[in-house]
Amino acid sequence: MTFTQSSTPADRIDVVIVGAGFSGLYMLHRLRGLGMTARVIERAHGVGGTWYWNRYPGARCDIESLDYCYSFDEDLVQEWRWSERYATQPEILRYLEHVADRFDLRRDITFGTSVVAADWDESRNVWMLRCDTGETVTATYCVMATGCLSTTKKPDFPGLSTFRGQWYHTGQWPHEPVDFSGKTVAVVGTGSSAIQAIPQIAKQAERLYVLQRTPNYSMPAQNRLLSADEVREALRDFRERRRLCEESEAGTPLAPPTLATYEVPPEQRSARYEEGWRRGGISSLSFAFTDFFTDEEANRQAQDFARAKIRQIVRDPKVAELLCPRHHIGTKRTCTDIGYFETYNRDNVELVDVRDNPIQEITPTGIRLSVRTIDVDVIVFAIGFDAMTGALTEIAIRGVDGQALQDKWTHGPLTLLGLQTAGFPNLFMITGPGSPSVLSNMVVSIEQHVDWVADCLAYLRDRGVDRIEATVEAEERWMRHVAELAAGTLYPRANSWYVGANIPGKPRVFMPYVAGCGQYRRECEEIVNSGYTGFVLG
Ligand code: FAD
Ligand code: N01
């Protein structure tokens, strides 16, 4: 545990923030600007959140670096230089460390400390946070900047403790490089993390087994170095570029499609998909036509295109077929890759289907499947996260009358705007369930949420009030709205982590808001402009 010197009084502060990733760092900066006392509690031994923990080979963002960054400070925007179209994990971590230094944030961050409980004390109008170090932090407001993808799914395979080799989870990667040379390696999972890591591991390992349960769609990143001219131009137009992001659906500046699939003849359709594939990135195909997420048949056209690409790239037809996804494209997060499908043309790589041949147990020397055993030196679990709610429900949060958040959310998360939940006054979530969060460029969504919270606290202070709570009625209305929007799309049909399907026993609820950053921003502004409708102040 490292205690840094704090500039805030020890007994009661204005705001306690949990988490020092993109969200927590900016929240601290905004609160300081308002003259409020604030302190951040962070489990890690450094800043960065996602980019501190996910150090696996190949980790990088899938939103262009020029957009996957803060916009709140013009000097910061202009002085930082991204080197690649999609920045690597080390580069993004360096950026966040730079931000922490530049704005002198570390002196109010306590590292190496986990918050294990948070109790609302109605009589004193405070949150009391208990840490694993035994320390208690008392604050009028609490901001959970704990991340949507920060609680890893545990590899609870029987026999794992007997394994004599090394094993790793992509979301908790060691700080020192892992050397796969001469090793036989198994990667479990074929989501975004695996799809980034597999081509890198394959280059080093003697032999690589990829244990796939469900194949995924992956678009070529078409990554490249950014030229000085391109960066200069993007930075010159940064404000306009960012405005487009803020008003868009996905938080990116790319012009949205205007035509539906069947409004164009078949040969032009393929040309549009091809154009997207050449452009690359997560929206390669989803930006071809307006009905990608809503029309089953239109979606199937894009699926067919993606499957045809896999069959073109992968030489062994049996392997290609096994790699072809069958779900509606886009309804599980589309991956982006650098040479993922090409990796299956290597002699040292074998794709193993663990759908029909599931993992039975881990043995001291490898992995026993139902019909065969694979001996390995190293296992990489790329099995994902308890997304969106995991980091919140693993803290014992108790609100008014001692109500536990875990109990309130038994049938799924309930929030107003993904920012607050009724019965838990003065508690805010950054990119909580019910907000665009994981369906958007998250930095754009984070800045908007942090600004909303900071402006709200300033508003309360100006009116001599220090309590805000969402009403049950407004929350119910919001959740109905979020569910209705999702029901108009194909999203809820997939067994994705968006609906909690990856965590056994998790209630099946489609958690993100699908109507996009711009529409969501307008809904937030309307609520503020009408005097915080749906919230009780004071
Ligand atoms: P995080 O970065 O997750 O930070 C939360 C912090 O809270 C963590 O440091 C954690 O240790 C801390 N914390 C949690 N619980 C506690 C506790 N109880 N006590 C103390 N500390 C706690 N999004 C995009 O938009 N584009 C991308 O390209 C992209 N790429 C990604 C790649 C990977 C590998 C992953 C996993 C996610 C990616 N994401 C991406 C999503 C990414 O999580 C967000 O973009 C963003 O980094 C989230 O920032 P955050 O501060 O909200 O949360
Ligand atoms: O996790 P995932 P992730 N036996 O849940 C498999 C962001 N991100 O870490 O689908 C066998 O997507 C599971 O199989 P199945 C991004 O938002 C972005 O890869 O459940 N297999 C699946 O294949 C992303 O969506 C980037 O059948 C098991 C895989 O493990 C999110 O983080 C990079 C299993 C998990 O895939 C999560 O991605 C990385 C079991 N028991 C992450 N349990 C970028 O590119 C799970 N699996 C920017």
UniProtKB/TrEMBL annotation:
What UniProt keywords apply to this chain's record, in alphabetical order? FAD, Flavoprotein, Monooxygenase, NADP, Oxidoreductase
Instruction: Specify the signal sequence span.
Output: none
InterPro entries in UniProt: FAD-binding_Monooxygenases, FAD/NAD-bd_sf
Keyword Metal-binding belongs to the record:
no
Q: Which SUPFAM superfamilies match?
A: FAD/NAD(P)-binding domain (SSF51905)
Q: Name one Pfam family in it.
A: Pyr_redox_3
Membrane in keyword set: no
Cofactor(s) this protein requires: FAD
Gene3D superfamilies per UniProt: FAD/NAD(P)-binding domain
PANTHER family the UniProt entry points to:
L-ORNITHINE N(5)-MONOOXYGENASE-RELATED
Similarity comment: family membership? Belongs to the FAD-binding monooxygenase family.
- The protein depicted here goes by the name NAD(P)/FAD-dependent oxidoreductase
Which organism is this protein's natural source? Planosporangium thailandense
Classification from the root reads: Bacteria, Bacillati, Actinomycetota, Actinomycetes, Micromonosporales
